[in-house]
Amino acid sequence: MNSEISVKIRPNNQITITSGSFCKRKRKISQSEQDKSDILMTIDIQNLSEELAAQRVVLEKLRIKLDKTAKPYLDIIKKSQRGKKPLFSRINKPKNFTKQSGQKLRESGAAMDIACDRNTKFCHEVTLTLPANTNEAFTALAAYSGYVMNRLLQPIRRDYGNDCLWFYVFEYQKRGALHIHIALYHPDESEGLWIAAKMIEQWHKILIDIGQKADTDMFLDKRRDRSTIRSKHQHHTQPISKAVGAYFSKYAGKEESKQNWYCQKYPVSRFWGSSKLIKQIIKDNSFEYKIDYFSDEKSQENMMEHIIENLLEKIETVSVSCYQFDIFLRGLHRINRYKDNRRIIVSGNNLSIARGERHTIYCGAKDYQKALEICKELAHSL
Known about the structure:
Elements: E1 2-10, E2 14-26, H1 31-74, H2 99-115, E3 123-128, H3 135-143, H4 145-159, E4 165-172, E5 178-185, H5 189-214, E6 235-239, H6 244-253, H7 260-265, E7 272-274, H8 276-284, E8 287-293, H9 297-314, E9 317-330, E10 336-339, E11 342-345, E12 350-363, H10 368-381
Antiparallel strand pairs: 1-2, 1-8, 2-12, 3-5, 3-6, 4-5, 4-7, 9-12, 10-11
Helix pairs in contact: 2-6, 2-8, 4-5, 9-10
């Protein structure tokens, strides 16, 4: 077994230091192991069949529940984007807002902070809200969510290219309707405000077009009264007075965007997205290196303490967390099993063992570039 220390730093002000012992090798399976694995596979197939049968019952109940909810407006929503298939046949697959999506959202905000040199007075946040308050409108917006974002962002990509940075995230309101949060940055503040104004104008046109395609009113509330609709219910624009990453972290952690019922009933095509330049900034400001050791655990612990002490002395930390892991991966058959709090993933003939601990350090936004330079210096010195 070989020991390894991995140091990774990401633009969401997170430094991850992992140390542990790892072993990977190819080997032949003996006849006794093969016979034992065949027995285990037979037992596991029976267990999997029972689990799948139980899952089918749950999915069937959910389908019946969704069908009952959908019946009142299945006849109303008739047309698709191309007018060939019913809208309900192109509903997106249900998906949840995962922790990885929240991390990507924070990294996008941190990348925008880096691009504008921490001067957030030129960054603007645009919120676009659905005026209607009916199930038909909620379903139509969710089904056309990919079409909506393409219509909103295509003029920016075509007219400004890399001069304008943007990223967006969809969120569920408490009533179940989707609304959009978009972060915009342009070096010229007046030009950024002009882009936001054009986006709001485009949003109104998109709602009208979706209403025509889905044969429903995107401006109607449940009382069937359009007189209560005001412009403030449809859009909102404001400058971001603090760090963009910190501002959008609240949207990454809201429970309304992770509720399984809304994700099942009104599934969005994609929860978040960003421009190519944002992705490139994240890549340029991320760093990872590994140190391989074949000595005892004491030298590994000393090296781990040396790296952590160097970081904690030179940067201001917000918080530090640590946890230990013990993973055993054995390769016989493609079956997932859990026993004695150890995860067994079966795939091929590989044998892998991992034991160690992981430290996570969160530094302040002001110290991120300093922490990045320290990590690179440590990599060169070691």
